[in-house]
Amino acid sequence: MRAPLLLLPVLLAACDGKESPPPNAPPAPSTTVAAATPSASATTAPTAAPEGTPPAANANAGSSDGANVFAFKLFGKAKSADKNVFLGPTSLRAALSMATLGAKGATASELVSALSVESEPGKIADAAKKENGDWIGARGTGAELYTANRLFGEKTYPLKADFNAKAESGFGAKLEALDFRGNPEGARGTVNKWVVDQTKNKIPDLLPKGSVTKDTRLILANAVYFKASWEMPFTKGLTKDEAFYPKGDSLGTTAVPTMHRYGTMRANVFPGGKVAELRYGNTDLAMDIVVPDDKNGLEALEANLDEGKFQEWTMGLMPKTVNLSLPKFTFSWGGSVADSLKQLGVKTAFGPGADFTGIADPKSPKDALYIDNVFHKSFVSVDESGTEAAAASAVVMGVKSAIGPDPSVIEVKADHPFLFVIRDVKKGRVLFIGHLRDPKAG
Predict the structure, then answer these.
(1) Domain count, the chain
(2) CA 218/CA 205 separation, integer angstroms
(3) Which of 59, 301, 409, 433 is most exposed by smallest CB count within 10 Å?
């Protein structure tokens, strides 16, 4: 039975080089400590060229465009016709990019294409390091915006030193050795606690019971936490219960606390809808509220949504007088996103033909890695003061084992299902994306 790998978004990554000694053993000179081999000792990795043709370079790789291409493709597969959805695509992309570090052949080609990342491990690591710097710049002094990566490896399973080095230098992902073979539930608890700590208790139980087994060999985890206050907070005294149409016009309303703001903000009117930009104070970050004109119009608005369409909407943002009505909301979303990734073309990585020999290259084919599952969970809360959001991903790998009308005022009334996006205005990168269908559905 081949060895499972889990993504939270947790990913695996590696490249040719020496295998590293067990995490609990003294490190060998010039190597990064990694998981130990199932056999007696670590050996030198093969120097032969990897099988298959290296995937072609991606024109969007390493750019905000590349990140946004993936964000909207993923949202297109994960969106729901009747439920709230909230994704942290940067979290998932980071975990999967770590896995791509050690992917080869068709496995690598599919991941590179789906994620819009570089094909060379060194460039993947460099892009990740740059992105982390962008995050630090974007948060400014007014936001908490943090991302963390971690590798959790079976203590007796060897990972290649070069993979560990690139995962740590590019993603800041240190390796923690766990006893998956002897205590899989204990290992699951350790990973979940790490996620809880990184997301300030907002993402509990990312890995469900049974997701980690004695055959699990590696978990690649990423967590993102964001909290910021509006540049112009909503006045709490104006918040009141108002009607919201979760099913559009047809099936009644529900009363929800609704916030109000009247004043100048960037907005745009486009065929079929309106978008208003809510800036966060002392940061480069903003939330875009995209409201369809038709109360039943969310599906049509999202039908052909991609990074190009979203860019059209945001490029047209100009200072306008806006009368905005926005419900308060808090909800969690998540679970396995493996099926969504398969729909994006990442198929070989989940099957017997997976090639992650850049991460680990065991002597027995039955100990070769494949992706067992990819878990992603997120949380968002929006109120008068601002927004709190978190997302976590893990890749599990294993072995085959009331204002009067004014024509000059733009009315943005989010009293029916709408789209919302949190992005870095300066860099253009989408950090979170979701849609709200029912503010009362937690």
Answers:
(1) 2
(2) 18
(3) 59
